[in-house]
Amino acid sequence: MTSHVMNTYGRLPFALSHGQGCRVWDTEGKRYLDGLAGIAVNTLGHAHPKLVPALQDQVARLIHCSNYYAAPLQESLASTLCALSGLQKAFFCSSGLEANEAALKIARKFGHDRGIARPEVIVYEKAFHGRSIATLSATGNAKVQVGFEPLVEGFVRLPLNDLDAVRSALRGNPNIVAIFLETIQGEGGINATRWEVLRGLRQLCDEYNLLLMLDEVQCGIGRTGKWFAHQWADIVPDVMPLAKGLGSGVPIGAVVAGPRAADVLGPGNHGTTFGGNPLAMRAGIETLRIMQEDGLLANAAAMGERLRLALSAGLHGVPGFVELRGQGLMLGVALDRPCTELLGRAAERGLLLSVTADSVVRLLPPLIISAAEVDEIVAILVPLVREFLGAAPPPRA
Ligand SMILES: Cc1ncc(COP(=O)(O)O)c(C=O)c1O
Hints:
Layout: E1 16-20, E2 23-26, E3 31-34, H1 37-40, H2 51-61, H3 72-85, E4 89-93, H4 96-113, E5 120-124, H5 133-138, H6 142-145, E6 155-158, H7 163-172, E7 176-182, E8 184-185, E9 191-192, H8 195-208, E10 211-215, E11 239-242, E12 253-257, H9 278-293, H10 296-315, E13 321-327, E14 330-335, H11 342-348, E15 351-352, E16 354-356, E17 360-363, H12 371-388
Bound molecules: pyridoxal-5'-phosphate.
């Protein structure tokens, strides 16, 4: 059959029809355990009994209105995000790349306001920030960029976790206005910025009057067991793009800013039709409320630890298994070889996951996951990976 959808994704040959909790079913009735949550989006799993009626209520009241009018739901979600992060103001949009685009505009305007005509931003190898022309230029993966040149200029690329490289870049370049990175790289293979490096970046940003901009689109919203992953390092950024899990499935993005950046953009500087619409705002408000009410940060930390320990025990010493990376419910099983085929093989056995950076099996399950469901992921994934690497099956427990 000829498809009328542009061919931009490699897709598995089945369609999901509905879900409940951490389970989803395809149109043929096959059931899967959701270890991916729509790539860190379905924070509350599927058809959450508290979220569904709230969204139904909002749909029946007001789905969309323009930003010409006062926006009480934006005020409400912004104030919660600020209370949770220690930041001051939020701008709303509808996706991760838009949140990052807003952050980059803030950085450039911050520079121009200080008389820097050609502001530059430090970015990182293996980073992923989105697929618009500016955010793909900030991304550190040639595969995302090839064919879309000329790239946007004004980025200085450095290796992750190397403070000396940042110091020398800053010494030689008065145009640098911001340091922009994912607190934990997602698409790049689950690579964490070390907490002491984050603290070092915070200090350098203070010393040089730069913006520390932490992309928490994938690692934020409770996924690591704290509201935001950088809170493990006990620092506060100046700018924090969010998206994915914030609406638990309803498209949403936000950029949240602290005192150095909160008032950089003024009327007429930025905007988007869908940004902050009532349905998205209600989804964000209810997601954060339910996460608090149901103790989902603690659950993410505890279930993440359970998953990590069981996967380590099951794969320890297997030739070809490199390491387990990540924090909370953002985990990567790094192998020594490309393993994209595991995506389909896991689905055959009833587990949804992803493979990123070619050789890293990535797990990002809903934050509501139970201990029994974690054990089920392990019971499917460990034998699958061992088999793939040509190792003997795990000994029976
Ligand atoms: C860290 C990070 N930033 C930005 C994006 C882009 O978000 P979106 O796909 O919503 O544009 C992603 C998506 O994977 C991401 O992981």
